[in-house]
Amino acid sequence: MRIDKQFIANATTRYMNTMFGGYFGNASPKHNHWYDFGYPVDITFSQYYTMYRRNGIARAGIQRPVQKTWRDHPVMRTAGENSDKETLAEKAVREAFDRVRFWEKLKDLDEKSRVHNYAGLIIRVADDKDLKEPLEKVTSGLNGLIELIPVYSEQLIPLKFDDVQTSLTYGQPLSFTFTESAVGLNNGAGRNVEVHASRVHIWSEDSTIYGKPALEAGFNDLITIEKVMGAGGEGFWKEAKSAPILNIDKDASMEGLAKMLGTTVEGLPDKMDEVVGDWQQGFDQLLMVQGMDAKKLTMKLPQPEQFIAGPMQSFAASMPIPMKILLGSQTGERASTEDGKEWCETIQGRRTNFVLPNVMRIIQTLVDAGIMPDEDWTPDWSDLSEASGSEKTAKGKDMATINKEFLGTGEIVFTAAEIREEMGYKPLNEADRLTDDIDDEDKEAAEE
After folding, report:
1. Which of 34, 120, 351, 432 could crosslink 428 through cysteines, CB 3.0-4.6 Å?
2. Is there a domain that residue 43 lies in?
3. Residue 22 pLDDT grade (very low, low, confident, very high; cuts 50, 70, 90)
């Protein structure tokens, strides 16, 4: 019988590739890192969600940018000459947003979106229509805004897609299946309905359902961190309470030992396992062995810091979050100050380029539906990159010191108005220059 050599070679390759993944077949000739190191090729929502819920570093990576972004809430303003004073329309919107906890819901939505590809905000209004019907006009205005429901991507699955190439929504979902119990509710309770796309705002990196999970780039690092922490904890436990090595004396009586333990010679091994097992349950147990010498197996464990530092830095870079910010460490004043400034600038950029465009899309949806008045709405939000009150005061003192040093030259480097502006005060008018009183706005600026 003729044996096909190519058949044997192919079969051998498949067999060797099964035994030694990453070294044979079409894999990399050097190393299949993900296979060898236990990293998943495709990461599911469940894996992302579990990592976010159970791993402290992953949770910090998800929450830190969101917490800093939503440190305070914006206020919706309308354009006009009296923009510093709240108008009736602004007051009505603020009260309606407070009623439905608008900004808190958006913060929750922002955090949920970072766990997977996207998150969705379902907008419930009083329009006497099913959720599966398109959102049109609401006649009751702000009172028609009933509820905002932020949900994970796993709870909001696309049901129908637009396949009309001439449509503006071509390739995008036309409706979703909202399954509230898909995440968090293990008893199967919750709503399970179809929702029209016009009632859903998708919050993601690219405003579509195809965004990137925040943990994706650093997921392998998180697995490595778990391995080091888990192995370290288990290793230190084993070292503290390791199984003893029992040396039987040559003159020991097995019959006597069995009698003492209430068993037979044949049942002695199982009984000894039981005795040692009971002893290992706690540090205050007494191990009695007649005719045996119990010795502890000692292990020399390396400190885990040197092994965990690399993946920690890699994960922080993938966010990107400075290590001290990620871990909440404030040691090293100068390093912490520089990290803090850079972090504020990063989050200010996140507000400007990501969060605010999403907010304005939601506002436009509410305006189009007749819920919010048709005004030129603008969010008034604090500047995270702005210097703090103490920093402004220090800058003003430095400017005054420079003026003092130039006093003999007859030159004034900074005017009083420039110094006051740098410190957060308004310039003094002629009447203010003749009194020692400080107006309320100046007091508030000085206290900040």
Report:
1. 432
2. no
3. very low
